[in-house]
Structure formats: structure tokens, C-alpha cells
Design brief:
about 120 residues, mainly beta
């Protein structure tokens, strides 16, 4: 069992920035971020595979969000810039042992709230 914990959410004005952090307790091959936006299903935001550190992103956040990681610490970060009101939601960190960054993801954090005010 791998324990996943994220932090760094909060309230920010539109156009502002936030940085989310996540740590996993055990060995993983992929780590990523998902979000639950009001009225929508849980969606993939960004992911990172330790094998090549090649990131994957949801199309609508490309150029605004950047995922990075520290394989030695089993941590990933999500730098979110130019935030928009539609980015408001609960952001979850997830980890897995899949081959591809798209998953599946087996372990999930509790989520951190991101609220963007317009």
C-alpha cells in the first residue's frame, strides 16, 4: 500500500498562481494530478513517468500548468499559472505502477481545494 498526500491548495485571484506538492510513501512508476471540477467528472490534469520524466497534460491547461518531480523523494509538483475561474475544484494527487503516464493510477490522496476568484 502506498500512501499519497498532497498540499498547497488555496484561494487565489484569477491570473494568479499556486503550486501544489505531493509525496508518495512507496515505490511508484507514475505520479499525476487529477481534478474534480463542480459539475464535471474527475479529470486527468497532468502526469509524469519516472522512466523518462516525460510529462503529459490535459489540453486546456497546456502552457499554464507545469508538472515536475523529484524521483529520489517520490514527489511531484504542479505549478499553476494564470489561473482561471474554471480551474476551481478539488485537486487530487495519484500514483501508480503502470507503464504509461496515463495510468491506471492505484493510490490517491485526499485532495486539496483550489478556488480561483474572478
Amino acid at each position: 500500500q502506498v500512501h499519497v498526500a498532497e498540499s498547497g491548495g488555496g484561494l487565489v485571484q484569477a491570473g494568479g498562481s499556486l503550486r501544489l506538492s505531493c509525496v508518495a510513501s512507496g515505490g511508484t512508476t507514475i505520479m499525476g494530478w487529477f481534478r474534480q471540477v463542480p459539475g464535471k467528472e474527475n479529470e486527468f490534469v497532468a502526469g509524469l513517468a519516472w522512466s523518462d520524466l516525460s510529462p503529459a497534460y490535459k489540453d486546456s491547461i497546456k502552457g499554464r500548468f507545469t508538472i515536475s518531480g523529484d524521483i529520489d523523494k517520490n514527489m511531484v509538483y504542479l505549478q499553476m499559472n494564470n489561473l482561471k475561474s474554471e480551474d476551481t475544484g478539488v485537486y487530487y494527487c495519484a500514483a501508480g505502477r503502470a507503464i504509461t503516464v496515463r495510468g491506471p493510477y492505484d493510490w490517491w490522496g485526499q485532495g486539496t481545494q483550489v478556488t480561483v476568484s474572478s
